[in-house]
């Protein structure tokens, strides 16, 4: 790192250059104990970690409110809310495509976050005024369901644009750990502050976290504030800051690219197959535990186990796993675990087996499979990183959720129990595993070509 780079980085933080260099050296020493990192990647990695922490912390402050708004809007209306969410997601994806075609990256990313911050403030004003409670509750449920996928997808679009494929393999596990810490902190703050602050004021707390995420976004986008990007984050074929294309060009690219179609299929198989497990778990827990407090305690214990295993996996496992075995192995891990889990459920269709399966598969997803899935986009054009990726992460993902519910209902209508459902999804899990390995090979080939 040059003295000029150091000076520019210090300009973003009110620190003397010597102090900044000392802190950077301490951070490098600490991070190098858990992840293989170069000194000039430290600042970008820390900004990315902090950004994802604030993004997910802000979302998880809102998530309990969303669930409560879903109840206030009427449990019987939830299927319609899911359908409305998918429709709104289609419109939001189109609007984002329009913006991405016209705005450079340095404006698109922060302005999108500012748009969502403004939305939170609008809902705060509506809740504080007590305006049309059932209607506002339903609108809030739909909005948060769209918001969470968009802000996370856009964060990862920025990551795959700033980091090279080789850097992503080493650093995305650490960056993901920032989100896991935020996912732990957000619900904790909500539980502690909901009573003293009141429900409406929690929205202001979420705004504060999103504002801090915006600070990190600006730091990352500034060339002087991104160590990794300053070395070689931009492909030489894409100079400058523009994304380009048209409103629909990112979506139109998907059917023309076998690689992108493979990612679409991977996401759909993930959402549909594991959607069955989620729905069956909800049914069995409801049938086993009659008290709401018992069900809440069980889900809380599951979430705690998942978050602890995920955080350890992101910090200690994913980088070494990907470097030694490759992205394909990381992508295949989740379907392999799903295949083994569905076989176990078919042999022993018990609630305890399903709970253990859900904990392990969620932890494996968040710790290893999700970072690996983001790595797939590092070898694509900038337009695909922002437009195609956003469509896959939002519309395709929610479409898979909707499809899993309908297919699950159809299979249950045929009289299939837990063992029958497990047997029915095994062929899909095998296809999913093979697809993960194929995507890994394609990623390796594209990565070598871009080197």
Can you walk through the features of this model?
With 451 residues, this protein is mostly helical. It folds into two domains: 1-19 and 38-231, Growth Hormone, Chain: A, CATH 1.20.1250; 248-451, MFS general substrate transporter like domains (Growth Hormone, Chain: A). The chain is built from 17 helices and no strands. It has helices at residues 3-12, 17-31, 42-72, 78-102, 105-129, 133-162, 165-197, 199-221, 227-232, 249-256, 258-288, 292-316, 318-325, 327-347, 351-375, 382-413, 418-450. It is globular, with a radius of gyration of 22 Å.
Features:
single chain, 451 residues, mainly alpha, Growth Hormone, Chain: A, 2 domains, 17 helices, 84% helix, 0% strand, disordered N terminus
Summary, kept brief:
This protein is mostly helical and 451 residues long. The protein has two domains: 213 residues, Growth Hormone, Chain: A; 204 residues, Growth Hormone, Chain: A.
């Amino acid at each position: 790192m040059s003295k000029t780079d150091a000076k520019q980085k210090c300009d973003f933080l009110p620190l003397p250059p010597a102090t900044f260099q000392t802190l950077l050296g301490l951070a490098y020493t600490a991070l190098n104990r858990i992840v293989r990192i170069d000194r000039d990647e430290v600042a970008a990695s820390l900004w990315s970690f902090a950004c994802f922490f604030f993004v997910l912390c802000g979302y998880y402050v809102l998530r309990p409110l969303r669930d409560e708004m879903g109840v206030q809007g009427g449990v019987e209306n939830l299927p319609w809310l899911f359908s409305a969410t998918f429709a709104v997601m289609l419109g939001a994806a189109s609007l984002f495509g329009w913006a991405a075609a016209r705005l450079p990256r340095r404006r698109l990313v922060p302005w999108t976050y500012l748009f969502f911050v403004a939305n939170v403030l609008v809902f705060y004003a509506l809740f504080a005024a007590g305006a049309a409670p059932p209607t506002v509750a339903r609108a809030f449920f739909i909005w948060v369901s769209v918001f969470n996928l968009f802000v996370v997808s856009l964060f990862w679009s920025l990551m795959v644009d700033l980091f090279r494929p080789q850097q992503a393999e080493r650093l995305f596990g650490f960056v993901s750990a920032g989100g896991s810490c935020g996912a732990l902190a957000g619900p904790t703050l909500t539980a502690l502050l909901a009573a003293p602050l009141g429900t409406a004021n929690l929205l202001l707390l979420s705004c504060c976290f999103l504002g801090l995420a915006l600070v990190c976004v600006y730091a990352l986008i500034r060339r002087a504030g991104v160590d990794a990007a300053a070395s070689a984050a931009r492909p030489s074929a894409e100079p400058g800051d523009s994304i380009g294309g048209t409103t629909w060009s990112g979506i139109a690219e998907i059917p023309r690219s076998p690689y992108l179609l493979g990612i679409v299929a991977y996401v759909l198989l993930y959402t549909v197959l594991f959607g069955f497990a989620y729905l069956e778990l909800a049914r069995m827990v409801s049938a086993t535990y009659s008290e709401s407090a018992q069900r809440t305690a069980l889900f809380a214990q599951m979430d705690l186990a998942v978050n602890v295993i995920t955080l350890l996996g992101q910090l200690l496992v994913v980088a070494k796993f990907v470097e030694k075995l490759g992205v394909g192995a990381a992508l295949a891990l989740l379907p392999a675990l799903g295949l083994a889990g569905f076989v176990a459920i078919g042999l022993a269709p018990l609630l305890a087996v399903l709970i253990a399966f859900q904990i392990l598969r969620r932890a494996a997803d968040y710790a290893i499979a999700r970072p690996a899935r983001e790595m797939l986009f590092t070898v694509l054009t900038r337009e695909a990183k922002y437009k195609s990726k956003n469509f896959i992460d939002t519309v395709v993902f929610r479409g898979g959720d909707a499809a899993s519910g309908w297919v699950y209902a159809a299979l249950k209508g045929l009289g299939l129990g837990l063992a029958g459902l497990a047997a029915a999804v095994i062929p899909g899990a095998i296809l999913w595993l093979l697809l993960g390995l194929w995507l890994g090979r394609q990623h390796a080939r594209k990565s070598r070509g871009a080197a």
